[in-house]
């Protein structure tokens, strides 16, 4: 493999010194970019874009052409695993992801099989190796997966949900059944992320989008325990280097200490968390990634620069910070504002 | 006024010893009760029910007839203040609250007038005094209001929202304008809650339903500061007794320490917070209210009892706990499960 020209992101994840704070942006290849919208309309629907290796590579590269970002992230969806399990993922216009065959009964769950990425999800590993070739060592490539709990909520509800009534009913009435589902998902995620790493992913992030809807006790038992199992099951040595693992539980700001004990390398923070307080909580156990409210990008250039300053100062001196938003960038953002953000992170963190 | 026969709830809010942990349930007069649905269909729509003193009193009493609850709560809506300001509140079937005239421009906000409860919201104070008469000292009556930030989000968006794009855009582009709106709302809430207290409310709760969507810094500046102003402006002596103030920010579990410094008496917790950790955080500054996930009520009787035990044990010995759900009870819950909950809180906390 080609030598990595910019390893600022990987070094920060391992809490090693860097010349300035690295930055990437969740959903950086997304609808706020006109060139993304053009490629997507060429591909057809969202999943067709994910499954088209060349186009998935193209959109992955697009934000790097515009902004000096320190990492690329595989263009894909968090729901590829349940799709590969046969649930029939589709995207209804303006409604988010849905499954044709949600998982509701004991029989549904018993019949699910742990995925084999090498045969079931080659479009993902193909995209990883194609993007790596195209990146040619420019910046590292991040692979990712949804967390077992997050995947389970979509699989049980059949779509996103306001209160996760079905998933939580299963949690409180048939916990063993939910554990059976989560176990199959954890094994699938391990296989999936290891395949991404073998194909060239240089860091991986687990998106626990819906862990925050649980009580602390339920989070530990039904979400965190499975993420811990995944961290333990990953082959995190590749190309002579550690592949760092990032855990991101949206709404998990109260549980950072137990998250830091999973053996992961970095915690993603949403914007409700004060990153300085988070750093005190986790100490030198993990790096931190985040955590600007994407809404700040709707504000003036000056207010963006001020918010960047607040976050950098709150984190303080020393290594272990990767700048990011606290959640994915939204489609309404002007790309020019992203340039202001990236420039602000670079110039202000260099000056520190 | 008649002597209060059960002051367990008020004593717990003031962190005084009680014989067992008091319990009430957010939205206890709600659609999960068949008798509520009957009264509501008699009244017409939701706001007609709020504005009909006799029927509002009737539904307030309904849960007390079924369950041994330790408090009643005024039947009303959090959006009465913006409605009184002329925004035209209505409820579209299955869609939640909406405003006919949302607040969008500088002129819209300048034209808003601080409400005068005595002339603009007599249906609320009439309901308070009617319910107090009907309660006849059985349990205390809770008055309430939405927080300024929460009211502002609905007023600016015109309805509930997923990401509060308009409200946050105002926050980051026209903060002074938002402060002007919040200031008028805070003055209105002070007037409104003082009028409820003067009419007989024996405790008040401020519902900050959407404070948790903010960053910590934005929460302090745009939500907490105004709740603090309200706490300072309330006449909390009535009928020779302190009227305790409860602050409830959904998703505010990371900010409990600053909330406890507002001068309020109790913090409401959603279920993402471990109540034992919260108690360590706030020490003897405030009481705590909460915090079972309403979804637990979809589970077996045994799992409800177990969850009650977990929460009571997590809080531990000593005064200052009011049991409640972490959010409003949902319409799908079987009332029989509420009986299991109330019995479990009573028997288990008596045994402690």
What would your notes on this structure say?
- The structure is a homodimer of 352-residue chains.
- By secondary structure, chain A is α/β, with parallel strands linked by helices.
- The first copy, chain A, contains 16 helices and 11 strands.
- Chain A has helices spanning 8-13, 34-43, 46-51, 53-66, 80-87, 106-111, 117-120, 122-135, 148-157, 165-173, 175-199, 216-233, 256-260, 275-282, 301-315, 335-351; strands spanning 72-73, 89-92, 96-99, 141-146, 203-208, 237-238, 241-242, 245-249, 266-268, 287-289, 321-322.
- The first copy, chain A, is globular.
- The mean pLDDT of chain A is 96.
- Chain A binds chain B through residues 163-165, 168-169, 171-173, 212-219, 251, 253-254, 271-274, 277, 293, 295-296, 298-300, 303, 310, 326, 330, 332, and chain B through 163-165, 168-169, 171-173, 212-219, 251, 253-254, 271-274, 277, 293, 295-296, 298-300, 303, 310, 326, 330, 332.
Overall shape of chain A: globular
Number of strands of chain A: 11
Largest sheet of chain A: 7 strands, parallel
Number of helices of chain A: 16
Q: Report the oligomer.
A: homodimer
Give start-end ranges of low-pLDDT stretches of chain A: none
| Mean pLDDT value of chain A | 96
Report the largest inter-chain contact.
A-B, 35 and 35 residues
What is the N-to-C succession of helices and strands of chain A?
Answer: HHHHEHEEHHHEHHHEHEEEHEHEHEH
Class from secondary-structure proportions of chain A: alpha/beta
Task: Please indicate the percent range of residues of chain A in DSSP E strands (runs of 2 or more).
Answer: 5-15%
Strand order of the largest sheet of chain A: 1-4-5-8-9-10-11
Radius of gyration of chain A, whole Å = 19 Å
Fraction of helical residues of chain A:
40-55%
Instruction: Give the termini separation of chain A.
Output: 34 Å
């Amino acid at each position: 493999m080609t030598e990595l020209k910019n390893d600022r992101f990987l070094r920060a994840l391992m809490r090693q010194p860097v010349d300035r704070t690295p930055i990437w942006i969740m959903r950086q290849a997304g609808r706020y970019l006109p060139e993304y919208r053009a490629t997507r309309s060429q591909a057809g629907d969202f999943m067709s874009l994910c499954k088209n290796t060349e186009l998935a590579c193209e959109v992955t590269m697009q934000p790097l052409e515009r902004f000096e970002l320190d990492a690329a992230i595989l263009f894909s969806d968090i729901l590829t695993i349940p799709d590969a399990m046969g649930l029939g993922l589709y995207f209804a216009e303006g409604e988010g992801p849905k499954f044709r065959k949600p998982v509701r009964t004991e029989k549904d769950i018993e019949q699910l099989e742990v995925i084999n990425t090498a045969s079931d999800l080659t479009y993902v590993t193909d995209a990883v190796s194609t993007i790596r070739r195209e990146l040619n060592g420019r910046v590292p490539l991040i692979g990712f997966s949804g967390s077992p709990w997050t995947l389970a909520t979509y699989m049980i509800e059949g779509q996103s949900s306001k209160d996760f009534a079905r998933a939580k009913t299963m949690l409180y009435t048939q916990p063993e059944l939910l554990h059976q589902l989560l176990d199959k998902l954890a094994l699938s995620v391990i296989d999936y992320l290891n395949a991404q790493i073998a194909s060239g992913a240089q860091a991986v992030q687990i998106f626990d989008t819906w862990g925050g809807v649980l009580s602390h006790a339920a989070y530990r038992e039904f979400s965190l325990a499975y993420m811990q199992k995944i961290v333990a099951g990953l082959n995190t040595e590749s190309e002579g280097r550690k592949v760092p693992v990032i855990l991101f539980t949206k709404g998990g700001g109260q549980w950072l200490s137990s998250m830091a004990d999973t053996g992961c390398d970095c915690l993603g923070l949403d914007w409700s968390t004060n990153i300085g307080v988070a750093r005190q909580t986790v100490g030198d156990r993990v790096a931190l990634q985040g955590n600007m409210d994407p809404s700040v990008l709707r504000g003036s250039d000056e207010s963006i620069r001020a918010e960047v300053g607040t976050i950098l100062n709150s984190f303080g001196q020393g290594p272990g910070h990767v700048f990011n938003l606290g959640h994915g960038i939204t489609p309404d953002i002007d790309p020019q504002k992203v340039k202001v953000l990236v420039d602000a992170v670079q110039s202000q963190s260099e000056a520190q």
